[in-house]
Structures are given as C-alpha cells and as structure tokens.
Amino acid sequence: MMEKREYRSHYKLGLNGVLEEKKAYESETEALTVARFLNTRDNIMHKMVAYKCVKCGKWHVGRNGTLLTEKEREKCRKKLQKNL
C-alpha cells in the first residue's frame, strides 16, 4: 500500500508517462466548483477535492483517494444547483 503524501502535487501524469502541470485556478471557489462538477460525473471513482498548491500558490483539483459514494455525488449536484 502506498504511503499518504504530506503535500499534494503540482503535476499530473499525462500521456506516455510524461509529467504535466495541473490546471491552476485563481480562487478556492473556482476550484471547488470544478471539483464538485467532476464529483457529479458517473465515471469518477475517487472524490475530487480542491487544494492550494505549495509550489505555485494557486488552487488545483485532485483525487483524495476516498471512494465517491452516490450520497456524496448527490450532495455535489445540490451544491452546484444552489450556486447557479
């Protein structure tokens, strides 16, 4: 089993195993909205979360390793609807 990292990465594993910079968001609100949208999608297995990057100081979205339940998926749908 992999150890939990102390910090989140600024990079993601792209095509052919090449590291790419993750999309950066200027605000926590913007990153949270993207994470909630991703959490409503049926093909997403692990919960997506917003976090502040220690390298660039901006916000990224990444998996936290927790399996996404249908209850959490519905909660994200409601929060997105509320913000529209």
3D architecture notes:
This protein is an alpha+beta fold and 84 residues long. It has one domain. Helices cover 31% and strands 26% of the residues. It contains two helices and four strands, in the order ββαββα. It has a two-stranded antiparallel sheet with strand order 1-2. A two-stranded antiparallel sheet has the order 3-4. Strand 3 (46-52) and strand 4 (59-67) form a beta hairpin. Helix 1 crosses helix 2. The N and C termini lie far apart (40 Å).
Brief digest:
The chain has 84 residues and is of the alpha+beta class. The protein contains two helices and four strands. It has one domain.
Order of helices and strands: EEHEEH
Pairing-aware structural class of the strands and helices? alpha+beta
Principal-axes shape call: globular
Poorly predicted runs: none
Please list the strands of the largest sheet in the order they lie side by side.
Answer: 1-2
Helix content: 25-40%
Number of strands: 4
